[in-house]
Amino acid sequence: MGSNRKYVLRVLLGVFLALIALYTLFQTRDLLFGAHLAVTTIYDGQIASDSLLAIEGRMRHARQVNINGNEVKTDPDGYFTESILLSPGYNLVTVSAYDRFGKIVEKTYRVIYTPLDTLEATKTPEEIQDIDLF
């Protein structure tokens, strides 16, 4: 009888310790896995013909999102939308997410802004007709 009692106590202690370990893992998931950042509307090497570039995406397990160093507002689900003004030529767009432990996830995109009027000024009328914009 005493042997069964010790066995049951050991099983209960094991289950209790397993529950504590799972709870600890759940509570430290942000520290272990860090912030996640997904940008959906731009890609590296993009060529833009409009000076206003819309950037949309979602962050998870993050406290703050910045685009080129400026903080961006997010909705309660972590989605964000922001527009930035591009300079003619080569532009770097850096999107950063910070988690509550100070870890940073950063994505940098190279975007080339070529205004349509600049494109048209460097082409002959025959070449402009051959350009497929859409």
Q: Give the percentage of residues in beta strands.
A: 35-45%
The residue ranges in which pLDDT falls below 50 over 5 or more consecutive positions are none
Give the class-level CATH name of the largest domain: Mainly Beta
Number of strands: 8
Number of helices, where a helix is a run of at least 4 consecutive DSSP H or I residues: 4
Mean pLDDT: 84
Characterization of this structure:
The model has no long low-confidence stretch (mean pLDDT 84). The chain has helices at 2-27, 29-33, 116-121, 125-129, and strands spanning 36-39, 46-48, 52-60, 64-67, 70-72, 79-85, 89-98, 104-113. The radius of gyration is 26 Å and the shape is rod-shaped. Strand 7 (89-98) and strand 8 (104-113) form a beta hairpin. It has two domains: 1-33; 34-116, Immunoglobulins (Immunoglobulin-like), CATH 2.60.40.10. Helices cover 31% and strands 37% of the residues.
Structure summarized in a few sentences:
The chain has helices spanning 2-27, 29-33, 116-121, 125-129; strands at 36-39, 46-48, 52-60, 64-67, 70-72, 79-85, 89-98, 104-113. The chain is of the alpha+beta class and 134 residues long.
Protein topology:
Elements: H1 2-27, H2 29-33, E1 36-39, E2 46-48, E3 52-60, E4 64-67, E5 70-72, E6 79-85, E7 89-98, E8 104-113, H3 116-121, H4 125-129
Parallel strand pairs: 2-8
Antiparallel strand pairs: 1-3, 3-6, 4-5, 4-7, 7-8
Comma- or semicolon-separated keywords:
134 residues, 5-stranded mixed sheet, Immunoglobulin-like, 4 helices, 8 strands, 3-stranded antiparallel sheet, alpha+beta
